[in-house]
């Protein structure tokens, strides 16, 4: 029997004026399957997933039917839905409800009325299985984003669900934490037989291992097949979603490879070994980083900061100089102090030692109106924090009354069709684009971005890169904190590694990622035994082409 049968499902939001977010969707998901749902931001993925659990279903007009174990979903009791259908949200803070780790693990079981003996057994089992025994008694507030997401997963699995639904679960995790999290999900599917339905823009760690991939576009299912066939189909159709395929797939088709398309880094490595065993051109020209920065747009010198008087230092001597008109990326693990550094630049967090200079002037000598109007702007990690009005249009109008300017920025960020929507009705990627538009309306000379690619599909990442390049051409400096190493490798001018409250090293993307073993790109891991310092899929494709000439 199928776990879910989605039959001719259509749905539209109240403010959509007849536009359907889901259009005649038909999907069957068998027990024990691992299904990845992919598509552009706003294609209807989250809307579809939320329909699979009544308490999360958005308000709006729905037609069609959803069967869970052969029963219409609205006739399945809330108790059965809570225990049998687990749901992990995009933002871990949206799901945590208690103050202690052990209590969070037990909360779902308490709600189901489990006896104490059963509860203790399941909680201890989950703590051991997920490796969280060391922080079992900690306050939830002290956990990093990765730990919170793992706690959410463990809390749900304590209820022994039949189905696990995950909506962009790694969007706020660093690459290593994201890979560990997704490997745990795969382990749950293989060892426990739990059905997994997952949406994810970062497909490297899940696409090769899924039983099926379902591609959505504008609320419709446009492809439903095995991952290998999906890659072939999207390439043949020249579909925009091909840009989201794992690096080995993009390199194989971009380099006009022969034979079976590789899906994993390992398969890609073997294919390259056979196809380019003795390359004549082994590396692309090396980039050079200047030793000193003349007239930096941003200067940080020995910043020290702690949130409370007796708490450990979060920033421990942060120093950096950012060239004018450059895209400067900061990478590193969750909880290293990257976002705190951006807050220190804005003056939200005031370091107790050290200096922040913006365009050569100490930040404390700026008046607030002078600093945040036409000089400095920040896009925070949570875009919802910028929305204060009932529609996106009203939010943008808060920044300027110039309708022509609003239309221009809305076109750049591709949100023209979202202007009359409530910001909270938008998908994560649409919220990110709307928040970026609001920030750009302040016309900053120094733009700070905290996880700007979070929740954004590969198609719009290229648009975002084009926007950032255009800003650079206008002399605007961009400082970006990101877990998206692929984006940083492709578009940044400089990359800094943040660890233990300080910047350890700064280099060009090719030299930075080319010299790392784990904190690097899939393209580099796949090709380093054949080509030197190739860190993007485009680098590898170019070297393949040069060696065919």
Overview of the molecule:
- The protein is of the alpha/beta class.
- The chain contains 19 helices and 20 strands.
- The protein has a 6-stranded mixed beta sheet with strand order 6-7-8-3-9-10, with helices on both faces. The chain has a 6-stranded mixed beta sheet with strand order 16-17-18-13-19-20, with helices on both faces. The protein has a 4-stranded antiparallel beta sheet with strand order 2-1-4-5, with helices on one face.
- The longest helix is centred in the middle third of the chain and has 18 residues.
- The protein starts with a strand and ends with a helix.
- 48% of the residues are buried.
Radius of gyration over all CA atoms, rounded:
24 Å
The coarse silhouette is globular
Average pLDDT for all residues: 84
In the predicted model, the low-confidence regions spanning at least 5 consecutive residues are none
What keywords describe this structure?
549 residues, single chain, alpha/beta, six-stranded mixed sheet
Would you kindly provide a brief summary of this structure?
Helices cover 34% and strands 21% of the residues. With 549 residues, the chain is an alpha/beta fold.
Walk me through the topology.
Layout lengths: L1 E11 L9 E9 L3 E6 L5 H7 L9 E8 L2 E2 L5 H7 E4 L12 H11 L4 H14 L15 H13 L5 E5 L7 H18 L2 E5 L12 E6 L2 E6 L1 H10 L10 H8 L10 H11 L22 E8 L9 E8 L4 E6 L5 H9 L6 E6 L2 E2 L5 H5 L3 E4 L12 H6 L5 H10 L15 H13 L5 E5 L7 H16 L3 E5 L3 H7 L2 E6 L2 E6 L1 H6 L7 H6 L9 H10 L3
Parallel strand pairs: 3-8, 3-9, 6-7, 7-8, 13-18, 13-19, 16-17, 17-18
Antiparallel strand pairs: 1-2, 1-4, 4-5, 9-10, 11-12, 11-14, 14-15, 19-20
